[in-house]
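In this section we walk through a basic example: taking a raw amino acid sequence and producing a predicted 3D structure, encoded as discrete structure tokens. The instruction is simple. Fold the sequence below.
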Amino acid sequence: MIAINGEVYDVEVASLSRQIQFVEKYREMTEDGAYHREIQGVYHQYTLELGNIDPAEYDRLVAALSSYAEYQTVTLPSARNSTVTFRAMLENITDGVIAQDEDGYYWDNLSISFTAKEPEE
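The resulting token sequence is shown next.
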């Protein structure tokens, strides 16, 4: 289960990876060879890969993801039995056609990259 702006999507999570990025105000090395830095914020970046999605649900999700909204509220799986909700910038959305029949094209292998709008507290 994932949610975008409070709208829940019934999807299968194929994989979810997280990168934690430390953004610095400055980093410098002093004459003694020691580094000194000040952390401005710690940002979480997620890459979500989905599979086996009903075609109608797929189209609904892609429409929500491809809006022109500057930020979206995203809920993703977190710990074993919980979720995390945060304001996010969508960075990349990729997918591909896997089949075609008389009803049209079938898309799958949806991958979405999110970056938190604000640092973790």
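Looking at the output, two observations stand out. The chain is about 10% helix and 65% strand. The chain has a mean pLDDT of 92. In the next section we compare this with other chains.
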